[in-house]
Structure formats: structure tokens, C-alpha cells
Amino acid sequence: MGPRSRERRAGAVQSTNDSSALSKTSLAARGYVHDTFAALLVPGTARRAPLIHRGYYVRARAVWHCVRAFLKGTCAAPGAPRAQILSLGAGSDSLYFRLKTAGRLTRAAVWEVDFPDVAQRKAQRIRDTPELCALTGPFQSGDPGYTLCFESSDYRILGLDLRQLQRLDHALATAGLDAAAPTLLLAEAVLTYLEPDDAAALIAWAAQRFSNALFVVYEQMRPHALSQTLVFPPSETFPRIDPASPSGDFPASVVTGNSQGPDLKRYGHASVLLSPGLILSAGGFGEQEGRHCRVRKFHLLSRYCDFEWKGNQLCSWGTGAQWDGRLYHTMTRLSDTQVLVLGGRLSPVTPALGILQLLFCKSEGNNPEDLNVTVTNVGPEEDSTLSRWRHSTTEVSYENQRYLFVYGGRSVAEPVLSDWHFLHVGTMAWVRIPVEGEVPEGRHSHSACSCQGGALIAGGLGASEEPLSSVYFLKPISCGFIWESIVIQPPITPRYSHTAHVVSGKLLLVGGVWIHSSSVPGVTVIDLSTGLSFEYRIDTTCVPWPLMLHNHTSILLPEEQQLLLLGGGGNCFSFGTYFNPCTVTLDLSSLSARQ
Fold this sequence. Notes:
It comes from Balaenoptera physalus. The protein is about 20% helix and about 35% strand.
């Protein structure tokens, strides 16, 4: 990683402090924990989702338990040396003030280290807040540019880069940290933001520097699109299954034009290519009118130059049915002006029932901005067949008729579904068609795409909540269809929440979540004639970091040899909800050059 990339990454890491601090403020405001100081240390307020609150509650309880146990064990004996807490990457955390109020620092002190900008802002916040100054007692402030930003008898804040270990060691010694005293080192959601070598070096420094210490780490233990860490070696419990060495790169770039509005910041949506140069996205969870919610506006991405796109918002038109804000549904293009919506959910316990049809009426000037969308219910709302989400819908052919093959997913009652259904496009009726062969394991969050009149199903989450690596072909035969398992060599990394496309006899699996791998998901290419698999890395040098390729959609542009990646993101226990900020294109030209 070059200097500019390291600087950009450091800036992104620093920005997570404010979001994390707001999450802690929201946690305290909703009564999950008692912390009157969180709101004093960060400006502004935010209301996080219950999922974020639960993650932060576990985090807060775990860290508090470790800190309290350490102080109890080291400060109980008469004449014991003063205990020390060294919080690495402390940010705006209120640990010192909670310990001081609880009377647990009579024979202990706290040192905090974070980036200089973060440390200086926190020190200034304390100086400007009488309630906080009353707890610290008399203090001294460091000069601008000085490492020690704040100093009292039992509290010191230092502004340092944790990657600069020599400076860190010298500054802590100067600030009075005793390497021989009982010390608790705390790294709370910190190491995962460091490069693997830097994280390993920091841990090695701590092991050599302190003779009587505990190191408490609270991290995501498995790879995540936001970051990855190699600090924890592979074990029998969590084996490391790395994909084959990359066969090449697919360069990623930001789509030019006016396509980066907040209306496209969403995940759990669906997208279809209505016609060349016209892409519709609907539903999902995202940003709308300045807040996070289930998105009720449609998004239309239209190409107005050879390489430029423009995004517009559309609303339901007319007095009939309206878009209900569903997510994790499927959309299938029936024609340039007709799209079918199946399944999805309105909440974790409320499925979106019925079949919706979206009809598009173009203006006289044929301007995409003036497109009208009419939502119509075309199926019985009480039909329980579509009481599912995170499923797949694929167009297949049987006896020269068009059918939609609905497979898998999950429901309120079942965490994984293994059934399938055929919907006749012409009559909108469910039809029984014989299917032979060994039935695949039930799954959701898998990928599916049309191939030779049948459907290719890949990956997903199985009944045990473990990612799957299997690929099945629903192959057309004279009397219906037959399931065929595709043998792939080398075996692909298990994944879910990815997308897929068939290009020139090759199956492309794009992104997803990989639990048992240390690498960031890229694009897996499977030759359907030979079963050979190849891994391609996504070169993200020219796109905003991080690029979270799950819960996204992708549109294949075969003539341009490109893939458009729209939306994507998810929840992180550390700082809340993240949305990919812009549409990204992948250049697939190297794939054709390989043929």
C-alpha cells in the first residue's frame, strides 16, 4: 500500500470514530447502558437501529467486565502498585469518566492513544465541558502539535499513530506509563482497521514492552468488506481457505455523470435492465430525504452519453396500488415497459405477499425523466407461495413457454427454504412441472441466472447458517427439468449475498460474503464446459473505500464488456449502517482477452 493509499485509509478510519461515538450515545439514550458521559463527548445525536444497539450492548458489557475484573484483581492487595489502563484507539470513548464516577480509579490511571486530530478534539471537548473537568480535577493541556494533549493525575490523552511504534513507546514513557506495573491494554474495534503487518507489530511491541499485562481485544473475528486482519492465525475451529491465486484484475471505476445521489444509496433492493441504457432499481433499505428507511421511490439510471449515466427518482403514479417499501425481493423484466415483482419482506416478521406488476409509460418526448410508473396487484394477496425473501426468480423455458422459476429463500417460520415453484408468465398462474434429480440443499441469499433455458444456482446460506460453495444446474429435459450438480476445480470459496451472470459460457460470481477466507471477495469465473474456476481480483484503487459487495445488484452490459454494480452495504456492529456511495463499473475486457 502506497503513502497516498495509507493516508486515505487513515482518514477513513478516523471518520469512523464520530459514527461510533454517536452509536454509543444512541445506546445510552435508549437505556441499554447507563452512560451520561457519551453525549458530552461528541456533538450531535443519532438514533441507531435495534440491531446496532444489540451489537454495542454486547460490546459494552464485554469490555466493562474485563476492565472491572482487571481492576479488582490488581488493586485489591495492600501495597500493590498503581494499575494502568492503556486504551489504544480510544476515540471519544467515556471509559475514564465511568470508572472515575464508580470510584474505581483510586489506585489506577488511564492512558488513551488515538490519531492526533481525534485526541486533540477530545481534549478540547473535555476542557470546554465543566461536568467533565470536575471529574478529571486539575489538568494541563499540551501545546498544539504536542503529543500529550491532556494530562491530569490519573488521566492522559496522547495523539499518536499506532503504526509508529518507536514514537508511541517514547511518548508513553515520557507520559509516565510504567512498563513494570500491572497494565491492561485495550483495543476495542481497533486492530481490524490496521494492515495485518501493522497489527502484528503492535501486538509484538506490547508483548515485549510490558512484563505484567493483559491485552483485551474486541474485534470482528472474520473477514468483512470494511477491513480484514490476519492477526489471528488459522485454527481447526476457523480454518483459512484461500482462493486460488488471482488470474487477473477487473479494474473498478466510478460511473461518471449525475448518478451518485442519495437515492441510490441502498441495499436489499432489486435492479433490472429495462432496455439498453435504462436501468430500474426498486425497494431496499437506504437513504431517503435525509434519513435511513425502507426506500419507497424508484431509481432510474439512464445513459445519456457513450460513457455517462444520469440518475433520477420516480414515484408511483395514479390512484391505484403504491410501492410498499419491500426489500430482499426479486424483479424480472417482462418487456421494455413491464416488470414483475415477487416476494420480499416489509419487516423481519412481515412478508410482502402478492405479485406486483410495474408498468412504465414514456412521455411524448421519450425523456426517461418523465417516465410514469404504475403499480398493479396481479396475484391474490393471500397466496402464501411468495411468503419468502432472499430467494431467487429466474426465467426458464418449458415446451416453448416462458416460466419464472422461484427457488429457496427464507420465511417467518423457516430460516431456510428448499422448495421451488413455476409461474407461467402468460397466465400468471402457478404450474406444476416435473423436476428430477437429487434435490439441492435449501438455501437463501444465493445467486441464480438463466442458462440454456434452465437456471444456474450458486452459493447461499444453508440450514446450518454456513455459506455454501455448491453450484447446480436446473437443466431442461423433454419431460421437465433435472437437477445436475456441477463439479468445479479448484473448489470455489463458499459465499452468499453475491450476484451472478453468464458470459460466453462462463458463470461469473460477483462479490458476496466470504467467511472462511482472508481475502476480499472479487469475481469468480467458472468455465461451464470444463468446470475450471478462476479468481479475479477487483482493483478498487479508483473507487471510494470501502466497496461492500454484498446486498448489491449488478447489471451486465455485454457489448461494453462491463458490469455495473449498484448499491450494496449493510450493518456493522462498530458504527452502524454503511451504503456504497456511488455506482461502480467493472471492466471485463480482460476476460475476453483470455479466451
